[in-house]
Amino acid sequence: MHSLNIQYNPRLDQLRWLAATLVFLFHFHLEYRGLGAGGLSSPWAALIIEGHTGVGLFFTLSGFLFMQIALHQRQIVYRDFLRNRILRIVPLYLLVFLVATSIGRDKFQPQDLLYLFVSNLGLAPTSGSVITGAAWTISLEFLFYMVFPFLARFAMERGMRYLAGWLVLLLFFKAAAYTVNTNSTLMYFSTFVGRFDQFLIGMMAAMFYARRAGALQRWAPLLVLAAGVLVVVDTALMHRVASFLSVPRSPFWILWSMIESGGWALFILGWVAFRPRLPGGVERLMNHGGKISFSFYLLHMGLLHLLAQGVGLVRPSGIPWLDAVIMVGASYAITWVLATLSYNVIEEPFLRMRRNYGAARSPAPVAQL
Question: Which domain holds residue 331?
Answer without folding.
Answer: 10-351
